[in-house]
Structure formats: C-alpha cells, structure tokens
Amino acid sequence: MENKILICEDDEVLSSMIKFKLGKDKLGQIMKVSNGKEAMQAIEKYDFDLIISDIHMPFISGMQLLEHVREHRNKDTSFIILSAEGLEATVLEAFDMGVTDFLTKPFSPGELSMRVKRLLAAA
Amino acid sequence: MIQIVTDWIFQQDSKVIFVLGLAASLFCVSVFFLSLIVFSKTSRKRKNTLRERYWPYIQKNLAFIAIQSVTQEGSQADYSKSIEILRALRYKSNTIAQWILEELIKQKANVSGDAGKTMLKVYRDLDLKSHSLRKLKSMKWNIKAEGIHELERMEQKEIFSEFYRFLDSKNHDLRTAARMGLTTLAPNPLSFLDQISEELSEWEQMSIYNRLRNKTKDQLPDFSKYYSHKQQSVVAFSINMTVRFNYFELVPQLIKLLTNCTPSLRVSIVHALSQLEAFQARDSVRRLLQMSKNTDEIVECLKFLGQLDDKSCRHLIWKFMEHPRVEVRMEAVNAAIKLDLEFKFFNTEQEEMFLHFTNELIS
Amino acid sequence: MNTWLLFSEMVEVFVLCFSVILTLCYFILSGVSFTSIKRYMKRSSLARFNDLISSPMAPSVSLIAPAYNEGMTIVENIKSMLSLEYNNYDVIVVNDGSKDDTIDKVVQAFDLVEVPFFGNQQVKTQQIISTYKSSNRAFKKLTFVNKQNGGKADALNAGINVSSSRLVACIDVDCILENDSLQRMVKPFMEDSTVIASGGVIRIANSCEVEHGKLVKVNLPTNQLARFQVLEYLRAFLLSRMAWAKLNGLLLISGAFGMFDRNLILKAGGYSTDTVGEDMELVVRMRSMMTQAKRKFRVALIPDPLCWTEGPSTNKILMKQRNRWARGTFEVLRTHAYMFFNPKYKIAGLFSYPFWFFFEWMAPLLEFLGLLYFVVLLLTGSVSWVYFIVLMVMFYNFAIFISSFTLYAEEISFFKYEKIKEQLALLVAALLEPIIYHPKIVWASVKGNIDVIKGVKSWGEMTRTGFNEKQVKLAKSK
Asked: Residue B198's pLDDT is what?
C-alpha cells in the first residue's frame, strides 16, 4: 500500500520543492497544505503515515499541530518538524512533545528525502 | 439654483457661515480620503492580478530547477528552458523581478546543499544583483536599506565597500542596515564599531551576534579592544560577546576592567565572569560585594559566589540573607544552597525560599 | 432677559471654540498618525524577526493572564498562549479565586502538580494559596497560580511577583493573540533602552473564525453593534493612540494586551487595586514616576493587529462596559490631576492629559448638557433652527472625516477586511454611527460619571464588573 504523506508549509516554493523531491523518489502519495488550519482539516479527514510540518505557520503553529496529532489522532504517525531556528530549547520542546525528527533550515532536500525513506521503512 | 443658495448664504449670520464653512471643509477632506481608498484599492487589485498571472510560473520553475539539479538526472537543457522562462519574467517589470529576488532570498534560507547553490546560480544568471545595486541609488531611505538587505542575504561579498557611505546617514534604520551588511560581508566585520558615537541598541547587538555566529573564530575581532570604547553599550556588547564565544583568555582583562567602570557595566562584567566560571576573579568579586550598595550588583556577585565551590565565602553570603531587599535575600539563599545543600535556614521566609530553590534544582 | 441672552451668546461662542479646537486637534493627530503609520510599515518590512526568534539574546518575557471563572475556555486559551513564536517566554496564569471548575480543568489538562513556591510580595497582593507546574515537560513554560480573589489588578500583581523575567506582558485570558505578537511587542524595548512600556492594538473578534485558540479568518462582525465597535477601535488605535505614541504622550495601554519592564512596574508599585481603570492608571503613574526621577522614557505602541477580543454584542453589556470605562477615566484623571497643564510633564502634562480631560472625559458630558440646553430652548421657543441644523451637519461631517481617515489608514497598513462587501459595510457603519451608536456611548459615559460621583460616598462598595461581562459573553457563545 502506498504511504500517505502530508506537507504543511506556508512557503509555496519550498513545499513544491519537497513535494517534487519526494514524488520523484517515489515515497508515496503526497498532499500539501499551506497553513495550520488546512492541516488540521486534512488530518481530520485522512490517516497519514508521515507529516512534515513547518514550525511557524499562519494561524496554527507546527507545535500545536503536533500536539493535536499526538493527543487526538494516531500516536504512531511519524512527524518531522522543519524550523528556521535550531535553538536547544525549541528542539528539546519538540522532542518532549513527541516529534520523530527535527530539521533546521536551511536543509538539503536530498537529506530530507533520505530521512523520510528511513522513517517510512521503519514504520 | 446656485443663485438661490448663494442668496441664502448671504442672508445668514457670520457664525452660521463659519460653521457651514467648517462643515464643508470637513466634508471635502472626507471625500478626499474616501477617494484615496478607492485609488489604493484599484492599484492593489492591479498588482494582485499581475501576481495571479505570473506567480505560478515563478513558483513552478524555481522548484523544478532546485530539485532537478539535486538529482543530477536533469540535463542542462531542462535548466536552460526554465531559466529562459524566468528571465523573460524578470525583465517584464521591476515588480516581478522583485518577486523572484525575494523568493530566491527566502529559498536560500530554506534549502542548503546543491539546491541552495542552484538558487545562487539562478541569481547570477538573472543578473538580479544589478536590481539591488540600483536600489542603493534611490532617494528613499527604505529602498536603499532594502537593497542593502538583499545584497547581504545573497552574500555578494565584493560590494561591501558600497555600504560605507551609508554609515553616517541621518536615518537610523539605514545606518543599521549598512552596519549589518558590513558585519556579514566585510572582511573585518565590526570595524564600524570604532566610529560609533550613539548607543548600540540591543536589537542591533542581537542582530550582530546572529551574524557573527556564522563566522569562524579567526574571522572574529579581538573583543577586548572595545573594552575601552567610550560608548557604554559597545563595551557591554563586547563583554557579552566575550562570554558568547567563550574567550576564557580575556578573563584577566575583564577583572582589570572591574575596578574602573560604571556600576551598570560592573553588573555585566560580574555576570560574564560567572558565565565564564572565572574562579580567579573570586577575590575581586568578594571585595566588590563587601563594598557594593547597588542591588543588581549584589545579586550578580552572589550568583557568582554561589557557583564557586568555595566554602570560605559562606559567611559573607549568609550576611546577605538579612538584607532589606527581598531579591538580595532570595539570591543569597540560592547561593547558600548551592554551596551546601545541608544548609540550615533560620526563619520561615528562608525555609520557603529553600523549598522553592531545591525544587527548582531537582526539576 | 438680558442675562439669558448673554448666557446663550456665551454658550454659542463656547461651542464654536470647542469644536474648532477639537477639529484642529484631530487634524494634527491624523497627520501625525499618518506619517507614523507609514514609517512603521516601512520599518517593519525591513526588520528581520527571524533573527530575534532564533537568538539566545532575546529578552525574557512572562505572559501574565488572570482568570476568573473561565473554566469553559481556559484549556484552549492556555494551549494557544503556549504556542506563540518566541523562544524565551513563560506563561503565568493566575486563578483569581474562581468559583467554577477552572483549577480542576487546568490541572487535569496539563498534568499539573503542586510545587513549593516562595511567595515574594514585592507588590502586596491577596494570599497565594498554591502554585502549580506541569509534570509533562512539553508544558514546562506554564506556571499556574491559585490565589484568593482580589480582582483583576490584584491577580496581575501576583503574576508580576511570581515572574522573574525582564518583561511582562499582561493580557486578558480570553484574548486571541497572533503568533508573532511577542516578537513585535519586544522590538521597541530592544531598539530603545528608554522604552518603559509598549502597547498592543486591540481588534474586535466577533464573527471571526477561531480554531484551537487561534484566529484563522478575519470577518467583519455580522452584529451591527459590534461593527460600530470595529470602527471605534480602529479609530482609537490607528488615529489617536498611534499619534500620541509618536508624540510620546500616550497615557493608556489597554489592559487586554500591554508589555512592561518588570522592574519598573515593581518600582511603581504594580497595578492599583482601587480603580476600575487600572490599565490607564498604571501607565500614567509610571510616566509620572519616570518624570519625577528625571529619567528619559518612552511609551511605545505597536499598530499591528496582534490581539483580538470579543466586543459586547448587546446594548446592556456594552453600556455596562462603557460605564466602567467612564468611571475609570474619571478616577485616573482625578488621581493624577496634578498633571493638568503641568509643564514638568511635557507632552503628557501639556497636551495628553488636557486632551483626555476635555475630549475624552468632558466631551460626552458637554454633549449631554448641550442636548438639555436645546430642550430648554425648545420649550422657551427660542431655537435658531438654521444655526442648529448647520451645527449638526458640521458635527456629523466631523465624525465622517475621522472615520474616513481611519478607514484610509487601515487600507494602507494592515488591510484586514478584504472583501468589498465588508468595506462597504464599514462605510455604512461610519455613516450611521453618529446617529445610532454615538448617543449610546454618550449616555453610558454620563451614567458612569454619575455613578462614580455617587460612589465617592461609599468607596468600599465598589463592585468589580470587569469579569462579569465576560461570563455573560461566554454563556452566550457556548
């Protein structure tokens, strides 16, 4: 069965890049949303195997999304956070909240793709 | 009709005419503002249609180029095709060129590796540098500052000398932009500090530090040379940087500075010394603590002594547990606990503080 | 009869002078605010807020939110407060002796455990019963303080005591903050070491879409009363407060969202518990403290729409709120009457205070007296109809001028109401406001002033209405 991946990123170019890259590497079915509100709606509707989310999004932040997923939805969903800041406090908080992986921008799309592949294989 | 109105007006009292005039002028101003709103709306709408039309092309082509180059499978032909589309858009209008440039800046901060390099290549191939350089010649300060920002973000190292002339601009924000541009691009990043006469704001200090973090240690200046700067904020900043970049070798100079400077600087020096865990400063800090009347200073000194593993300071610290100021008492108890956890409190307040701090220590 | 003529002549001259000065003041204010907004927009487009949120040098901030009987929404609100984009802040929620299940809900939702805490009383407050922290590290930013009831100001003071940050942001717990609100409010403190406080702009959240404690879509309220308030808030913040901040004469930072230097609040003695206008009182007191200490200072205002709050949607609650505001204004102006035209206090003493005195406090009373005077004239049959109508037209045009300027200022700055339909509705609201909405406000102010004068005799019986209206509101929205 194909994996379902959700990309939440308000930067349209970046999210198309990620989608393009993951699609090219045939990692699964990819859906992309551009803010926290749409992400919440998407999560209500479908069961994703992996969520890649920016930490700073309009309306609802990546952390809030993560907390929602961990509390109300599937606990095993892999969750990768992308963040422009890699301060220790932020990273630790994210892992406390149960994030699977944390990438600091700028990151290489190739690296992201490798990490996604590993996470999906492990699940 | 007009005749009737004017006749009527002339029959009226002067005060009526005055009020009527006032009303009419207010009415005119309102109409003026309302028409400005309409004007602003139409120009916004025009811009939006332009964006709706061209934005998808920019987005698609940039994403395509970035990823194609990473996978190495893409041929040179793919790249040239996309870059031709982008080039056509770039020369269509300044607005579109600006969009592309902003997008490249954003993506450069988002992606690294080959995809990041490709963004720089696109920047060069579209000659967007000239777009920013033209902005430096603008009459408006904010356009100039924008140009500086753009060149800084795209790391155009060779043009840093262009920024020097903005260092004595009358506009504070333009000055700041030039300073930050130089911090990122110039070979000796903080040279502008020598000529600074006004306060270096906390915001600027923060921004400079953020830029210095991306540099290697040999690119950093010798911060001790600013310890004698006449601008207090620059001295405070360089003390802070000494701590942030862990210059343990500057501790002796910091201790020397402690004896001749203002109280507010003394606070930051003691803070720096405790961050650097400079045990050799123990005697100077003890002396300072015994003489000081300034609450902030006492608190910082107590913090410093608290983290030294030196029981000989115990009695000095205990003295401050009776201090009239509550923040001093609190810090004294905190320091005493850090020195020995077996510490015996004398009254209920100290007991409460004790519980408070031990709980913090555990969690 | 002659004295009567003289009297009426004097009244007319007074009315004329008053309105000319008022118009002049607003012309100046709108000019100042226009340049100030333009400049702010330019500056904020240049600022790199990413630098701030990724910097370990960001100053520490405590978000202090007093809560009283907020059980229904508190968990959602706290979650929203915990997820703001800022790296160096904590959240202190002060339960001001709620009678509902506020504590249980919060304790359960965030796995709180009681921790020993040293109750340092740098500002004297009602007793703190217990303090909680979360055992879940994901919520380690949260501190929950349970104290005996003492009113909003007292709860804020308790929060300020508990905090150990450099800055404190005092907010209403039911406010919806934008994600970037802390970054933006902190900026003035970092740019200028003389800034002692910065105020946020409050917007009306009625009919807006709210999900997970965050505002996800801005809508113009469907309720007409709330629409008038949208216009009124825009006017108050974009026109007058923006200008006063620029002139460094800002006297009021709304209690719904303001940020202060913690040490200075403590030095000033915290919020005053014996006024209903505690937010304004604090700013005025801090100003006068700084002036007396002969220190340079500035009170800043951030015009971005950062804090959204539900405005009253029924006449009854609106009247109650405005009554309280009028009492607050009166009390603050009376307490700090020494500033009136006092050159020592510079702009604040020479302009802001008199402006508040004449145009914020006295104007509604004068309008009311004017109406009474008109009734007397009507009864004696000596109304000069032409003059009366011309005067009314002038006042109406004045109101329209202010509103149209405000709409323009919003158009060139934040542009939150995007749809043409909403814009037209705002315009209609602007045209109707002087006739439908304004008289209500005038009446509420008059009643507030009467209440406060009556209340002088029985000072101790003053009831705190601050939280009651929220209760009604919650009951309605759920």
From this structure: 86
* Amino acid, single-letter form, for residue B310: D
For residue C295, give both structure tokens. Answer: 């220190």
**What per-residue confidence (pLDDT) applies to C476?**
38
How close B210 comes to chain A (CA, Å)?
Answer: 11
Distance from CA of B107 to the nearest CA of A (A): 7
Spatial distance between the Cα atoms of C56 and C61, rounded to a whole number of angstroms: 13
Tokens at A86, concatenated: 């890699």
- On the question of pLDDT at B348 being above 80, the answer is no
Q: How many CB atoms lie within 10 A of CB C365?
A: 15
CB contact under 8 A, B63 and A20: yes
Residue B36 has its nearest CB partner, among C190, C398, C408, at C408
**Residue C381 region, left (φ>0) first, then alpha (ψ -120 to 50), else beta?**
left
pLDDT in tens, B11-23: 888 888 888 999 9
Measured CA to CA, the distance from residue C83 to residue A83 in angstroms comes to: 14
Q: Tokens 């004297």 correspond to what residue?
A: C124
List alpha helices for chain A, DSSP H: 12-24, 36-45, 62-72, 88-96, 109-122
Strand-strand pairing, C214-217 and C142-147: unpaired
- Interface subset of A 67-86, CB within 8 angstroms of C: 67-68, 84-86
Find, in chain A, the residue whose alpha carbon is nearest to that of C57: A87
Reading the block at residue C396, the tokens are 């109406």
A56 vs B: CB within 8 A: no
- Interchain proximity A61–C85, CB inside 8 Å: yes
What H or E segment, with its residue span, contains residue C203?
Answer: strand C195-204
Asked whether residue C463 carries a pLDDT value surpassing 50, the answer given is no
In order, the DSSP letters of C405-446 are HHHHHHHHTT----SHHHHHHHHHHHHHHHHHTHHHHHHHHH
Q: Which chain B residues have a beta carbon less than 8 Å from that of A108?
A: 70, 111-116
CB pair distance less than 8 Å for A87 and C56: yes
Distance from CA of C105 to the nearest CA of B (A): 23
DSSP conformation letters of C111-140: TEEEE------SS--SPEEEEEEESSGGGT
Q: How far apart are CA B135 and CA B125, in angstroms?
A: 19
Assigned token pair, C134 = 């979360």
Quote ipTM for the complex. Answer: 0.91
Residue the block writes with tokens 């909405």: C437
Give the residue from B70, B78, B122, B213 with the most A CB atoms within 10 Å of its CB, the best one to mutate.
Answer: B70
Chain B residue closest in CA terms to C133: B363
Q: What is the pTM of this model?
A: 0.92
- Scanning the structure block, which residue is given the tokens 């703190």? C128
* Alpha carbon of B355: minimum distance to chain C alpha carbons (Å): 6
Counting DSSP H helices and E strands in chain A, the numbers are: 5, 5
Per the DSSP assignment, residues forming a β-bridge with A101 are A80
What residues are paired with C298 via a beta bridge?
C195
What confidence tier does A76 reach under pLDDT thresholds 50, 70, 90? confident
Q: Residue C425: which residues within 8 A CB-CB, separation 6 or more? A: C220, C227
For residue C81, which amino acid is it? M
Asked whether the CA dihedral C165, C167, C173, C178 is positive or negative, the reply is negative
C321: number of Cβ within 10 Å: 18
Which residue has tokens 């003026």?
A: B32
